[in-house]
Each structure stands twice: as structure tokens, then as C-alpha cells.
Amino acid sequence: MQRWKPSVTVAAVIERDGRYLLVEERTADGLRLNNPAGHLDPGEGVLEGVVRETLEETARVFVPEAVVGVYLGRMVHPATGEDITYLRFAVCGTVGDELPGRAYDAPVERTLWMSPDELRACPGRHRSPMLLQCITDHAAGVRHALALLHTHDSVHLLHKQAPT
Q1: 72-81: long-range contacts, CB 8 A cutoff, minimum separation 24
Q2: Quick one: DSSP state of residue 125?
Q3: Which residues contact 141 (CB under 8 A, 6 or more apart)?
Q4: For a disulfide at 158, which of 41, 43, 66, 88, Cβ 3.0-4.6 Å?
Q5: Are strands 83-95 and 7-16 parallel, antiparallel or unpaired?
Q6: Are residues 140 and 51 in contact, defined by beta-carbon separation less than 8 angstroms?
Q7: Beta-sheet pairing, 108-114 with 7-16
Q8: SS3 40
Q9: What is the pLDDT of residue 60?
Q10: Where in this chain does the record put each Nudix hydrolase domain (predicted)?
């Protein structure tokens, strides 16, 4: 029997003056909006992953402040029919200005700031239903201590040596 494994993703929730930093990325279904987000890489913890993904997708350094939530969602990819379950760790924090000369990683086309109302008005442009839920929870004041997340040293040793 094949073991079921969700895809683990990390997402940054970044708010400034009532607007949220989003990425617009090219997908098989056209341009879609998302938090700066992506898959957790082997050998990294959640906080390392969200800092890396935010830098790659926004050209900005992300400073984590709190956990907004852990979200489980499922989607069937429209083009391939693949049934995927995502486990998303959403972390809020702050960013500075874009780093000069740093490009966004593909498939990000641009970044933009949107209010929750603007985001609610365009659900067809969301890459994931978890996008709006993370922002709604953040706007409602949901915050958990970063200490909620713990990465055992064995994760960081993944590429250096096999665990014994």
C-alpha cells in the first residue's frame, strides 16, 4: 500500500498599512495571486523555508514574527488531474525594501499590495483557497508564538549524513 504524504509548504503573511504583500505568478491556468510561498526544501526548518521563499519571490528579506496558522487543503490540478493535499505553515512578519538588482524567481511576474477586500473581490485569481484564509486570520489578530515551531537537528543533518 502506498503511503499518503501531503506536500508541505510555507507562506509569508506580510501586512503594511492594511494591505498585504502578494505575488502574481504565471501558472498553467494563467496569472494567479498567492502569498510569497513555496515548498519546504529538504534540510530546512519552517522558518528557514519561509525566509528563503520570501526572498526568492519578492527580492525582500523577511523577518518572522509569529505563526498565523497551519492549514490543510486539497486540490485537483485542472490540467493534470493530480490530486494534491497541501499542509501550509503561514508565518507573519515584516520585510524591507526590494534588494537592488535581485530578480524574482520564476514563475513570479511581479509583487503587489492588496487589501483583504480587494482580495475577496477576485477569488478566481487566487492560486489557493488558503491564500484568503491566511490573510483573514491575520487580519482577525490570530498569532501564535514562533516557539510553536521546532526543527530537530536531524533535519539539518539531512544532506551531511544519514541519521543513525
Answers
A1: 72/6, 73/128, 73/129, 73/130, 75/128, 75/129, 77/28, 78/28, 78/29, 79/28, 79/29
A2: G
A3: none
A4: 43
A5: parallel
A6: no
A7: unpaired
A8: coil
A9: 98
A10: 3-136
Residue 97, classed as helix, strand or coil, is: coil
Torsion of CA 143, 76, 46, 91, to 10 degrees: -20
pLDDT tens-digit map of 5-57: 999 999 999 999 999 999 999 988 899 999 999 999 999 999 999 999 999 99
- Please state, in angstroms and rounded to a whole number, the distance separating the CA atoms of residues 43 and 57: 20
Whether 126 has a pLDDT exceeding 80, the answer reads yes
Domain segments of the chain: what residues? Answer: 7-156
Asked if 109 and 58 count as a contact pair (C-beta separation under 8 A), the reply is: no
Does the reported pTM lie above 0.85? yes
Pairing type for strands 30-34 and 37-39 reads unpaired
Amino acid letter, residue 51: V
Residue 18: which region, alpha, beta or left (left: phi > 0; alpha: psi -120 to 50)? left
CATH superfamily of the domain spanning 7-156: Nucleoside Triphosphate Pyrophosphohydrolase (3.90.79.10)
Residue 78: C-alpha distances to residues 30, 75, 81, 82 (Å): 12, 9, 6, 8
